[in-house]
Amino acid sequence: MAVSEVLLALAGNWQGSNRLWLVPTEPARESKGTAVLQPVAQNKFITLHYTWADEGQPQAGVLLLGQDGAQVNASWVDSWHMQDKIMQLTGTTKPDGSAVVDGSYAAPPGPDWGWRITIQPLENDQFKLIMHNVTPDGAAMLAVEAVFSRAG
Are the C-beta atoms of residues 132 and 142 closer than 8 Å to each other? Predict the structure, then answer.
């Protein structure tokens, strides 16, 4: 089954701003960002390539999303967050067309932590890319919020 029409409608080039929180109670680190969403494999999947920066150092990531019935499946890499690893995530779409997927990562010496990624379509040709760090007991903390507007 193909990804939702709502996500396919986001295909194209985007520009915006990125905010990163290392500690929820401290100010966010802000940078400019870009995004390119592209349908692949006969519209069965969509890729999101995005750029951002941390303290002036360029960063980039890729999210590959597909849908199997009600379940959304994703693979995610990011030069800063994931280093040399690929995270696998699963989730669903929401009534507004948002895709929400959850994965996890090792946090030795303690238990694994969760990671939630949301692509949320907005009005006026915009979308948000939102990422939450999820504690082992389920508390979600905002880690990244990027707001993109369609470029040119």
Answer: yes
Residue carrying the six token digits 């499946």:
73
CA torsion sign, 66 to 85 to 14 to 141? positive
The verdict on pTM exceeding 0.70 is yes
Please write the tens of the pLDDT for every residue from 19-40: 999 998 899 999 999 999 999 9
Residue 26 resides in a domain: no
**Three-state DSSP class for residue 111:** coil
DSSP state of 56: T
Q: Identify the CATH number of the domain in which residue 103 sits.
A: 2.40.128.20
Are the C-beta atoms of residues 41 and 33 closer than 8 Å to each other? Answer: no
Q: Please count the structural domains in the chain.
A: 1
CA 80 to chain centre: 13
